[in-house]
Design brief:
alpha/beta, single chain, Diaminopimelate Epimerase, Chain A, domain 1, elongated, inorganic pyrophosphatase (n-terminal core), about 550 residues, 6-stranded parallel β-sheet
Length: about 550
């Protein structure tokens, strides 16, 4: 399985660009199977950045919990009704399988066949001398299994229930015993013994099988044609011919038609609950129409390989892609506070530095590896830094961000980064083009402080004119978002990249907001002069207010 490089949920430009750039670096160094992924589509600004950089958007993956089709075996061995023991067993033996699915002509699963089921064909009704020697098959299948030839054949494809008789006794005893059974149900196995061959042909048996490669004399062949007796020449001796004849029985009666299948698109966790209760040896994996797509053993589903993730621009499970708690986190690159929930069974690389952008950290990894990024990847990383530091104007900006962006600028090809940054912030106003829910969801992160769960969304605008037109519907959307996600409150930080200030809109206020010490402009609305960073400025402020209220 590939290693997926993921930003946080509701990814911003830094999350998506750092995932793309770091996946590119891993592909060129230690993990050629690295794939950039994201939990949702890029916003308008990020799309602009990717388009200008000429790089593809990450793969959208909403849940990394492995599905059955991700871990099942694709090299499937199957059987079908109308096949015989020998055909199915040889196939199972070659693939070292103890059970295989049985399918119809449209590849829909109609049963499961195991080695134990096949043994029933050999050893069924051992106490009944008639039924124990009955073989349900056709003469063509017998000839194929024997690797023999027909000296004469009548309706070789016809299905028959044949009684096997071996001409190993005296001619008189054999003839007497043979006449006790219906001629057209008998198949006689004998060697080069005309004293057995003649009475069998005269009796009009269904078929005569000659062992040891012997053939009938021309006269007896003519008599066989007259009496309607098929003649098969077997290269094997009598014992092995008889065994192979029994192995030419149709598998149909022993196919288990009370079977369990697993949907390929179900999660391994869901499938595990099904297979743990079943004694079935293998589990056909099917699509929604019941068509076979793979095969799983119980062990495949009880202990499946875990998906591997590299987290960028976050380090909390609460902000990670769904299913991350069941994955193996192999690496983290982040510039936020340490969160909770991450665990590993072995040491991992964990880079967490107080810089303005995760793309800064990724660019430093390129430099440390001595690898020059392509112009597209360089512009991609520059976009993440420009976005998260408001083009180096945010208080989160460090000298490292400035130095790294200066290193990236000449690597961005023909792009004038100063002009590009202006275009970047002018493109894609969320307030101009998005619904209230889209505005809130575009760059939203959830947090928990002193058992208070809340979300903070942030958008960057050039001026607040559009906000004033939409503040009431945005407040209503925040209230709905908090209720649906069972949050204590939701907040929207609207940052003006020109004035370097923000407006803070809340779903509702509590007594804690009396201590905020910023101007209250309207119900649940505050002017936060000089605050532009969710991470470094707003989150610590809210955490302090919540802590004070709790105390």
């Amino acid at each position: 399985m590939s290693v997926l490089v993921f930003g946080h949920r509701n990814p911003d430009t830094d999350a998506i660009c750092s995932a793309i750039a770091y996946a590119d670096l891993l592909q060129r160094t230690t993990r050629p199977d690295a794939v950039a992924a994201c939990c949702g589509p890029p916003n308008n600004r990020t799309e602009f950045a990717l388009r200008r950089a000429g790089v593809a958007a990450p793969r959208i993956v909403m849940d990394v919990r492995p599905q059955v089709e991700d871990v099942c075996r694709r090299d499937i061995v199957t059987a079908s009704f109308g096949e015989v023991f020998h055909e199915a067993y040889q196939r199972m033996k070659q693939s070292d399988l103890r059970a295989i699915p049985v399918i119809d002509s449209s590849r829909k699963v109609v049963g499961v066949l195991s080695v134990l089921h096949l043994m029933d064909l050999f050893f069924h009704n051992e106490d009944d001398p008639i039924r124990s020697r009955t073989v349900a098959t056709c003469l063509q299948k017998i000839c194929n299994v024997l690797g023999g030839t027909f000296q004469h054949a009548i309706q070789p494809e016809q299905r028959d229930e044949l009684l096997v008789m071996v001409g190993a006794m005296s001619a008189e005893g054999f003839t007497e015993r043979m006449q006790q059974f219906p001629a057209k149900r008998l198949i006689v196995v004998c060697g080069d013994r005309p004293t057995i061959q003649l009475p069998a042909i005269e009796h009009g048996v269904r078929a005569l099988v000659l062992t040891g490669g012997f053939s009938l004399s021309p006269g007896l062949v003519e008599l066989a044609k007259i009496r309607g007796v098929s003649v098969i020449i077997s290269p094997f001796d009598t014992v092995n011919t008889t065994l192979r004849l029994k192995s030419s029985q149709f598998i149909d009666p022993v196919v288990d038609q009370q079977f369990v299948t697993v949907l390929g698109r179900s999660t391994v966790t869901e499938a595990r609950a099904i297979v743990e209760r079943s004694q079935q040896p293998v589990f056909p994996v099917v699509d929604d129409d019941g068509v076979l797509v793979g095969l799983s053993f119980k062990s495949d589903l009880i202990n499946p390989p875990k998906p591997q993730l590299v987290l960028v621009d976050h380090n909390e499970l609460g902000q990670a892609v769904s299913g991350a708690e069941e994955a193996e986190i192999v690496e983290v690159l982040d510039h936020h506070r340490l969160g909770g929930g991450l665990k590993s069974t072995q040491p991992i690389r964990f880079i967490n530095e107080p810089v303005g952008s995760t793309c800064t950290l990724v660019a430093r990894q390129f430099r440390a590896a001595g690898i020059t990024p392509t112009p597209g990847i360089a512009l991609c990383m520059a976009s993440g830094i420009i976005s998260d530091t408001l083009y180096l104007r945010s208080p989160t900006t460090t000298d490292i961000d400035r130095e790294v962006l200066a290193w990236l600028k000449p690597l961005c090809g023909t792009v004038d980064v100063d002009e590009y940054a202006k275009e970047f912030f002018e493109i894609g106003s969320a307030l101009r083009s998005s619904t209230p829910l889209q505005v809130i969801s575009e760059d939203c992160k959830e947090f928990s402080e002193d058992d208070v769960r809340f979300s903070i969304s942030q958008i960057e605008e050039t001026g607040f004119d559009l906000f004033w037109d939409r503040k009431d519907e945005l407040r209503a959307a925040l209230e709905d978002f908090a209720a649906k996600n069972r949050l204590d409150f939701s907040a929207l930080l609207v940052t003006d990249v020109v004035s370097n200030g923000s407006l803070l809109l809340l779903s509702h206020e509590s007594e804690a907001w009396e201590e905020i010490n910023y101007p209250r402009l309207d119900r649940s609305l505050y002017a936060l002069k000089g605050i532009v960073s969710r991470k470094k400025q707003l989150l610590p402020l809210l955490a302090q207010l919540i802590s004070t209220a709790s105390a």
